[in-house]
Design goal:
The chain is of the alpha+beta class. The chain has 4 helices and 4 strands; from the N terminus they run H-E-E-E-H-E-H-H. Helix 1 (2-28) crosses helix 2 (63-73). The chain starts with a helix and ends with a helix.
Length: 106
């Protein structure tokens, strides 16, 4: 019984930490929206897009923890990273250079 309570407390701390990071991102970018996606055994990826076009992501150990964190943070959550949502992302020279480097093996 103690093991279950310890695991639940650990998950609650992770949810709280992620929610705090999401809220800080939203505050720094004039608000934010997000999307949660499975990434296999590694858990779930929380993609964040700020109102100013800035973006970032976080990784949660499980999909359930990711869902709880975005719910606790209060941001709008999209089911898919569709064209309309993706169009809100602002890409700069760094991203274009990085994407080009991937294509040419850099």
């Amino acid at each position: 019984m103690a093991d279950t309570q310890q695991v639940d407390a650990r998950a609650e701390r992770k949810v709280s930490r992620l929610a705090h990071q999401i809220s800080a991102f939203a505050k720094a970018h004039g608000g934010a929206e997000g999307q949660v996606a499975h990434i296999g055994e590694r858990g779930a990826r929380i993609v964040l897009v700020g109102e100013d076009g800035g973006w970032g992501d976080l990784v949660a150990p499980t999909y359930a923890i990711a869902e709880q964190a975005v719910a606790l943070s209060g941001i709008t959550v999209h089911e898919d990273f569709d064209g309309e949502f993706a169009a809100k992302v602002t890409t700069g020279p760094y991203e274009w250079k990085r994407m080009a480097g991937i294509q040419v093996g850099g």
